[in-house]
Write a structure and sequence with these properties.
Length: 128
């Protein structure tokens, strides 16, 4: 059973940067799509970004476009979320997720139910 291990969270001032990492343990996960979701206190978990292993196609939620970049390293079987210009409203627990799907009609890549594997979450806190 593949498990995802996400890491890299921390406390940063507004305008700062962080890089989150996600890698599978107990096996490899190199097909389909990897995504990042986040859950702020008192709010539902929401989609942040996703990338396909095959061709590196990326997807972002509007609020992070131009600030966050998702990337993958196929040789390391690792996905990254580079977060720049962080804002206090980016504060949340960030979860990586893996899906066997590689093509996405409409915006289905943003739906949790299509993701089969989840990391344990890593806290990102942005102070003003």
């Amino acid at each position: 059973q593949v498990q995802l291990v996400d890491s890299g969270g921390g406390l940063v001032q507004a305008g700062g940067s962080l890089r989150l990492s996600c890698a599978p343990s107990g096996g490899t996960f190199s097909r389909g799509t990897m995504g990042w979701f986040r859950q702020a206190p008192g709010k539902e978990r929401e989609f942040v970004a996703a990338i396909t292993w095959s061709n590196g196609r990326t997807y972002y939620t509007d609020s992070v476009k131009g600030r966050f970049t998702i990337s993958r390293d196929n040789t390391k079987n690792t996905v990254y979320l580079h977060m720049n210009s962080l804002k206090p409203e980016d504060t949340a627990v960030y979860y990586c997720a893996g899906s066997h799907a590689d093509t996405w009609p409409g915006a289905t890549y943003s739906l949790e139910r299509w993701y089969d594997y989840w990391g344990q979450g890593t806290q990102v806190s942005v102070s003003s």
